[in-house]
Amino acid sequence: MTRPVDQHPTYGEFAAQSQVADIAADLVGPDVTFHHSTLNFTWARGGAEVKWHQDIQAWPHTNYSPLTIGTYLYDCGMDQGPLGVLPGSHDGELYDLYDDERRWVGSLSDADAATIPADRTVYLPGPAGSITIHNCRLLHHSAANHSDIGRPLLLNVYSAADAMPYTPDPLDSSHAGEIVRGTPATWARHDPRPCLIPPDWSGGYSGLFALQQKEDRARTVPTQQ
Ligand SMILES: O=C(O)CCC(=O)C(=O)O
Question: Is the sign of the CA dihedral 15, 124, 49, 166 positive or negative?
Answer without folding.
Answer: positive
